[in-house]
User: Which sequence fits this backbone?
């Protein structure tokens, strides 16, 4: 797999400039998603908003990459994660999580989930929790100098996870067995753990280990 070591070679000022350009666009669309779910304006205003948004979409589509973001051969490892639905600087679906890396390899993030992530009324959708944990466990694997595809992800939903409350995700690797890296993690609210996860991340046949 290419891209892994490119992370180190990307010019930081170029990354900062791109983040300053695309970050506000993404944040604006993120706010729009929440607005679209919760709006109670009258039908004329909905029709007006729909027309305006169609125009915005065609403005952005005037020049586009071919295919998905991470599939671009010229795009570096750092930029590729910008399309992530969990941390993506360019993905309005991402909450986003801002990940913190500890020297001992633990990875964690504080975040909140709003109306766009609802499962049961006023609670986080279980699939969204799985998405977040898959990513955070995968990051802990990556931080340990390995990488791999998610082979198995096991979740235990211990308590409902609330919307619009401070949440935290944590992950760390447990052990490495050949091509398999075992990682554990959780999502917590103010009262403690709501979801526990364990995952097996596997370096696919034919791929070299990261380091
Ligand atoms: C992820 C790429 C990272 C790129 C790095 C760049 C930067 C990263 C930065 C930041 C982290 C990002 C974080 C992202 C997080 C999201 C990750 C995802 O969403 S991944 C998409 C969902 N997962 C799939 O689509 C897998 C589909 N499955 C496969 O591709 C294969 O089945 C694979 C690779 C899992 C295994 O295939 P084989 O052919 O290489 O492996 P065989 O030779 O069959 O088995 C090897 C060993 O693993 C066990 N094994 C095989 N499959 C297993 C499984 N599903 N679960 C558990 N064990 C399994 C076997 O029993 C065997 O064990 P024995 O060596 O005998 O002890």
Assistant:
């Amino acid at each position: 797999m290419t891209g892994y070591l490119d992370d180190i070679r990307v010019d930081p000022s170029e990354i900062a400039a791109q983040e300053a350009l695309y970050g506000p666009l993404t944040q604006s669309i993120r706010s729009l998603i929440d607005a679209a779910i919760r709006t109670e304006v009258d039908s004329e205003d909905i029709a007006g908003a729909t027309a305006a948004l169609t125009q915005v979409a065609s403005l952005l589509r005037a020049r586009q990459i071919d295919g998905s973001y991470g599939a671009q051969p010229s795009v570096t490892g750092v930029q590729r994660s910008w399309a992530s639905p969990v941390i993506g600087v360019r993905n309005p679906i991402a909450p986003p999580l801002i990940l913190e890396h500890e020297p001992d390899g633990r990875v964690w993030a504080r975040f909140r989930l709003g109306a766009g992530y609802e499962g049961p009324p006023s609670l986080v959708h279980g699939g969204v929790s799985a998405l977040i944990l898959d990513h955070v466990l995968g990051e802990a694997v990556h931080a340990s100098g390995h990488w791999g595809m998610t082979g198995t992800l096991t979740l235990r939903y211990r308590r409902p996870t609330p919307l619009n409350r401070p949440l935290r995700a944590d992950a760390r690797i447990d052990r490495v067995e050949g091509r398999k890296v075992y990682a554990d993690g959780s999502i917590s609210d103010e009262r403690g753990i709501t979801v526990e996860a364990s995952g097996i991340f596997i370096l696919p046949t034919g791929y070299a280990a990261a380091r």
In short: Residues 41 and 162 are 27 Å apart (CA to CA). The helical segments are 6-9, 12-38, 43-61, 77-80, 126-143. The longest strand covers residues 167-177. Confidence is low (pLDDT under 50) at residues 1-8.
